[in-house]
Amino acid sequence: MPLSKLREFLDQNNVKYLVISHSVAYTAQGVAASAHVKGKELAKTVIVKLYDELAMAVVPASFHVDLIALRAAAQAPTAVLASETEFRDRFPDCELGSMPPFGNLYGMAVYADETLARDEEIAFNAGLHRELVRMAWKDFEALVRPVIVPLAAGRAPTKAA
């Protein structure tokens, strides 16, 4: 059960959180709509490669990662999106594409967009395509210790109707 690793970690740290169940959705915008959460309030986790090491970039669901800004913030020679085959095995307890932004649980650095730090709460996928966790930003920041930088760019592309 994917949520159990995250839930155990949150419980061990005495963090208050809410689990939100919703119908299955595979895109961040679809999750936001299904769970009745605004896209800017839902954080999505994007797996990137910095220095050929996997890392997490966390941005509001309605935006995408500015890899140039991320590369500069990380002082890395390159910043590219990781392929699913490059990170699939790193998340054995998660459905692909639903990883929570807890890099500390998976041996990865976390870079979070500065706009997320402006909200009192953060909501994110909890390892399944049908569950979110909502918790206080201050608790997330204390547990994960993300590098907070401006890395969200433009609205994420949407499918043509």
Oligomer: single chain
Summed up, the domain count is 1
Tally the helices: 5
Query: Could you give a short account of the major beta sheet?
Result: 8 strands, mixed
Ends distance: 35 Å
Corresponding CATH superfamily:
YbaK/aminoacyl-tRNA synthetase-associated domain
Q: Would you report the number of β strands?
A: 10
- What integer is the average pLDDT? 87
Question: In words, what does this structure look like?
Answer:
The protein has 161 residues and is an alpha/beta fold. The protein contains five helices and ten strands. It has helices at 2-12, 28-34, 67-74, 84-87, 137-144; strands at 17-21, 42-50, 53-60, 63-65, 79-81, 109-113, 121-125, 131-136, 147-149, 152-155. The longest helix is centred in the N-terminal third of the chain and has 11 residues, at 2-12. The chain starts with a helix and ends in a 6-residue tail after the last strand. The mean pLDDT is 87.
Outline:
By secondary structure, the chain is of the alpha/beta class. The protein has five helices and ten strands, in the order H-E-H-E-E-E-H-E-H-E-E-E-H-E-E.
Attribute tags:
161 residues, alpha/beta, YbaK protein, two-stranded antiparallel sheet, 5 helices, 10 strands, 24% helix
